[in-house]
Structure formats: C-alpha cells, structure tokens
Amino acid sequence: MRTIELYPDDVHNQRTIRQGHPSDWVNREGGDYDLVVLGGGPGGLTAATTAAAGGHRAAMTEQRLTGGTCVNFGCTPSKALIRCARAVHEASRGAEFGFRLDAPPQIDFGAVMDRVRKMRSMSSAGDAVEVAEQAGAEVYLGHTRFTAPNAVEVEGRLLQFRTAVIATGSEPVVPPIEGLRTGEYLTNETVFSLTELPARLVVIGSGPMGCELVQAFRRLGSEVDLVSHSRTLLPNDEPEVSELIRRRFEQEGIRLHLGFMAVRAGAGRLLAQGTDETRELPYDALLLGTGRKANVEHLDLGAAGVHVARDGVEVDEYLCTSNPNIYAIGDATFPQKFTHAANATARLCIANALDGAHRPVRELVIPHCTYTDPEVAEVGLTPRRARNEGVVIDAYRLDLAKLARAFIDGEEEGFGAIYTRSGSSEIAGATLVAAHAGEMISELTLAITNQMSLEALANTVHCYPTQAQVFQQIALQHARPQKS
C-alpha cells in the first residue's frame, strides 16, 4: 500500500495522515456490494455515506487521503492562508479606524503555515476513515482500477458491485512550458508545504486559485507577479468583476502581466511572451494556477466500458456513464470543479442510481465564489451565460457603497446585481462582489431554486444594517408594484 507523506513532518500533518490514510489500515477481503464509490473526497464520502444511511451495503475506495483535494490541498488550507493574510491587511488599515501601530505588522510566516496545517488537520477529522466507517461505509485504501463492467480491484482485493460511482476528483494541469521540471514549481498540492515565505513569487494563471493565492502571498510580504495568457482576471466572470479585482490588485502592489504566455522557466527566471514584448521575471518560487483536469487516467475505464469526454467521464443528464451501472460525479466529470458541486451531484446521483429518482442534473442551482478580497460570487443565469445561450435578460444593480453597513465597515468596494429573463420578475441569476460575498450569495441561490420573484425578495425582512440588504434594496427598487 502506498505510503502517504506530507511535508513538514509535524504533529498537524501526522494527525491529518492518521485520519485520512492510517498506516496500519488493513483492507477487508473484498466482496459483493450494492454500491462501490471510487474516491474518498467530498463527493465520494457523501455518496457512500448517503447510500449506507439508506440501508445499502456500500464500499468506498481512496488512494491518497480521505477528504480529497478540498480538505487536504484546496479549500481548507487555502482559506486558512487567506484568513491570515486578511488579518495582516486589516491590521495595516488601523488609521482608518482610529488606531495606530508603532510599526507595520510583523509577519511570522512559519506561524502562519503552522496554523494552516492545524486548520487542515482539524477539518480532516470530519472526513476521516473512521468517520466514514462509523457512518456505515466500508473503506478500502489503495490504488483502484476496474477489472470488469461490474468489478474493481483494490490492492489485490476484488469488489463486485451492482452500482458504482466514479468520484476520483481532479488534479493540477501542468502547462507545456520549456524548461519546467517536476519539483521546480508549486501547485495547490505542494504550496501549503512551504515553511519560508518566498521573497519573489511568480504565479501563472488568472483563475480563482491564481487570484486567491497571489493576493494572499502579497499581503504576507512576497513580491508577486501574476502571468496569464488571458487579458483579464477571472476570465469566466463578468468583465466588470475582472476590472474591479484588477484595480484592487494593482493598488496592493501586485504586478500583472495579462495577455502574456509563459514560454520558458528555470534557474529562477520565467520568460513571458506578449504580443509586442517579452518580459523576464525573477522568482524564488513559481506557482502554477493553470486549471485542473479530471483524475481518471489510472482507473482502466475501458475495462468497464466507460467513455471519457473533454471534461472527464462522459455522463448523461442523470449522471450515468456509458455503462448503465456506473455513474460519475464532481470534478471527475464536471467542468465546474467546486466542492459543493461534488456534494450536490453526489446526493443527486445516489437518488437516481439507487432510489430511481430520475432527476436531471440541470435541476441543480450551483453558485460559486472566488475568495479574493473583495470576494466574487455568482449564481444562475449571468450576462456571460445569457449571451452564450442567446437569452435576453434584464439586469438590476446597486453599488455596495450605497449601503450603510458597507461603508461603516470600510468594505464599500463592490456591487450586487440581480438578473431576470426579459419581461419576467422571476429571479434567474445574480453577481455579488463584496467582502463576504460567499456568505451572502446563498439567499439568491435559494431564491432561484424556489423560483422566487423580485417581489418576494423585496417583501423579505432583512436585518439592518447588513451588507446582505444589497439584494433586498435592488428588489425594492425594481419589483413590480403589488396590485390592490
């Protein structure tokens, strides 16, 4: 069985490994199962434990650490790092709030990363092997591969199934850059092993991961350059969002090289080629934030008769693969690679596969949030998506600066927008740029899921003063008058 290592070998990482891949774990002999789930990340855990709670005999396999990318290399450690960086940034703004520090905040990067690893170990406790077992799922650790349309092998153990779910997540994309060698760059899977702050950091990629970490490291004291072939930050979000985040990054001293392609790396220098010029950027650490791809190449999917498409495993609208007894969820099949999407598709998948629900995935309303400062959250039908689908929408917008709580908090940079299909008052989508957008977008997700109107939102009483009032204020301005 594969030995799992996390660097540095401290008490927090030792705890994470004990919880997610105990070194003394002994797999069962195998057997017949109603459900076998490949992958022990958020989606896999949800699928296996949901099935077990429904009275099905369920097994879950995991090659690395239960909790998957989210707990171990993604959501948890990145948000822990971002929180430390935001605390430093807030301390540096003392003059705005009536206090003064005798010196700038002194950052102990070793202590920052110790807290990151501690938060990871605490979070991973909820996704531990023992927790899954207690919930009724039988856990197998080690490499898993299909051997037949109804069977998998895990470290020599044969598991036969009536239904299987592929939930193996995703892995970092490494771009074809000349001179780029394994071990000479960081990804989300290695950046949280740092114990010393890079004096000069170059980040490749302007998507959510690149934007989140470039701002965090800048606030912690690194000199930072961001390189992207895209001419905008967060290119999948609205142009107004990209421009707002660009201005904030430049104010904070982040050097942006947008519209530049990374062409050569090595010996502490990155060569970036633009349309009219070439730039050479020195670095002490190089971080790749160039996207993720489905982690399915090692599964021997051909033996199971499962087809693979561009974004991963090919599924129909009910999450079923080309093998009618095998389903796929989360990052393994979806281009939207979010933990909450994995959890949602897991629950839907089990309902379809084991309970005959026959619910299409299009029913799911899945928001997303990028945890820059300010945060960027979107849900439903946005202008970009509407243009792609040829749908005409009406947009209603309000600057955060017009809300009392936003300027009281010194967090007035941002805006809220609600979208409806043209001529309708039913809420179809929303964009929010705010310090706490991730905490606030769920109200609009609920509204869209339940087909609520602007009038319903306008009539919902909100606490005053709160930044969440942004959506009610928009609705109050644009809801149709109620007929007497």
Automatic annotation (TrEMBL):
Listed cofactors: FAD
Annotated FAD/NAD(P)-binding domain residues: 33-345
Keyword Flavoprotein part of the UniProt annotation: yes
Keywords recorded for this protein, A-Z: FAD, Flavoprotein
Domain Pyridine nucleotide-disulphide oxidoreductase dimerisation, residue spans: 366-473
Domain of life: Bacteria
Gene3D superfamilies, alphabetized: 3.30.390.30, FAD/NAD(P)-binding domain
Keyword Transcription regulation annotated: no
InterPro entries xrefs: FAD/NAD-bd_sf, FAD/NAD-binding_dom, FAD/NAD-linked_Rdtase_dimer_sf, Pyr_nuc-diS_OxRdtase, Pyr_nucl-diS_OxRdtase_dimer
Record family assignment: Belongs to the class-I pyridine nucleotide-disulfide oxidoreductase family.
Protein name: Mercuric reductase
